[in-house]
Amino acid sequence: MFASKLQNILRMFTFVTFSYFHIFSFQDYKVHRDEIHTKLVQIMRERLLVHLRGLPQIVESWNRPEDADPQPSQFARSLTKVNHWADPQR
Q1: Longest dimension (CA), the chain
Q2: Spatial separation of the C-alpha atoms in residues 36 and 42, rounded to whole Å
Q3: What residue segments make up the domains of the chain, in order of their start?
């Protein structure tokens, strides 16, 4: 009889402590998840504002006349430059 009451008390104590820690951990998880969500939204908002500030210059470049220079840019010329050391015919 005493052993069964002791087992019941132990079972009840285990249930209560498990329930308490389970609720405590779940609340911590929810708080952590909410903080991460808030931080992510904040970062996305900041990036959006940075890109929105640069948007008028991009739109303005669309409205400018085309470059009248028939030569490709220096960057494009350097990309297509022939390597004279690798080409034995030159």
Answers
A1: 104
A2: 10
A3: 2-61
pLDDT of residue 77: 79
Question: Torsions phi, psi of 59, nearest 5?
Answer: -65, -40
pLDDT at 48: 95
pLDDT in tens, 1-33: 667 776 777 777 777 666 666 666 778 888 889
Residue with tokens 């470059």: 67
Q: What token pair was written down for 43?
A: 């970062």
pLDDT above 70: percentage of residues in the chain: 70
Cα atoms in the 13 Å half-sphere on the side-chain side of 27:
6
Cα distance between residue 52 and residue 38, in whole Å:
21
Structure tokens at 13: 């104590």
One-letter amino acid at 13 equals F
Q: Which residue has the tokens 């490709």?
A: 72
